[in-house]
Amino acid sequence: MSNAVPLLLLFLPILVLVIAANVVEERSTELGRRRFAWSLALINLPLLLVGFLLLLFPARFSRFFDSPELIFNDPRLLGVVLLATGLWTVAACWVPFRRFLAGFLPLDSQSTVHMTALVLAGYLVGNTAVTLSQNYLEQLSELDLVVSTAEIVLQQAAFVTLAFIGSGLFTRRSLNQVNQRLGLLLPTGQQLLVAVGAIILLLLIQATIGGMWAFFDPQQAQELGSINESLLTDFDTVGEWLVLALAAGIGEEILFRGALQPVFGLPLTALLFAVVHVQYGLTPITVAVFLLAVVLGLVRRHTNTTVAILVHFGYNFALGLLSMLAVYLEQFVTP
User: Fold this and answer.
1) Tag placement on the chain: N or C end, fewer CB within 10 Å?
2) Of 72, 99, 134, at which residue does a domain stop?
3) CA pair distance 265, 88, nearest whole angstrom
């Protein structure tokens, strides 16, 4: 569990911020909410300052980017990302800007919790921009990285915790109220049939896009396939794929479809979901992930989050079983 400590160090400040936003939302006065917003904006001002410095004086900082261990090697490009992230996060603390966003998003412009969600979304997109700015796919192909079951479970547990605490558990809502807010309800028989149909649809989308990608750009498709095989080396049994599919289905659906979609709406939530999964650069799989998120968002909208969890789980588990089957069949076709 080599990444457990960095993940915990990253997660705890976010959790504290989300708890503070909920406490302020529930117990503070209007002046207290404004002070919380000013404080959050002040925290993000260094992003703007560092971004400006990197843009104006890239040569002065170039020596800090010489290390081969750094993903970022262009100070000017890093400056653009930090500046854009800083502008977004500071603007999100400004009520008129949130009121403008509320014109086409279902968020509450006066809510400190929704404001904090916007800020965290800015961090998420900024972090992905760092990755996309580099030729990360080629870098990963040269590394021997392996993701463990424990790391995935820990990450998804963090997602679930963030969703429950962000929805006001222990501060604004009871557990039953949070479950209602997150859409964690028992599915009906008809909804289970919807889940089966959605799983089949997603597998068809995946197969179609994957097949087209392999036809038009077989080299890149093979490169990404090799990276995925390396990352998921430890997942070679049905039980391990069951845990992976269950963890991802529960964690990602409770956070994205349960907690975020009622605040950001379906399109933006689907885009954020795709952003989270752009680990290796923009590829046709990014389109598949976005369509996956749209289908899951529609499932959440017309049924509930529990059904979306079942769909996500079933889709991931089916892909895992198919990958294991492909590995098994290779022994009969390899000369």
Assistant:
1) C
2) 134
3) 18
The C-alpha atoms of residue 269 and residue 263 are separated, in whole angstroms, by: 9
* Helix, strand, coil % over all residues of the chain, rounded to 5: 80, 0, 20
Q: Nearest to residue 134, comparing CAs of 72, 79, 80?
A: 72
DSSP of 288-299: HHHHHHHHHHHH
Per the structure block, which two tokens stand in for 274?
Answer: 């795709």
Answer whether 104's CB lies under 8 Å from 83's CB.
Answer: no
200 & 299 share domain: yes
Alpha-carbon distance of 113 to 167, in angstroms, equals 8
Q: Does this model's pTM top 0.85?
A: yes
* C-alpha gyration radius of the chain: 21
Which residues fall within 8 angstroms of residue 105, CB to CB, at 6 or more apart? 263, 264, 265, 268
Structure tokens at 137: 């796919």
Quick: pLDDT tens for 216-258: 666 655 555 544 554 455 567 888 889 999 999 999 999 999 9
For residue 163, which of 151, 149, 152, 173 has the smallest C-alpha distance? 173
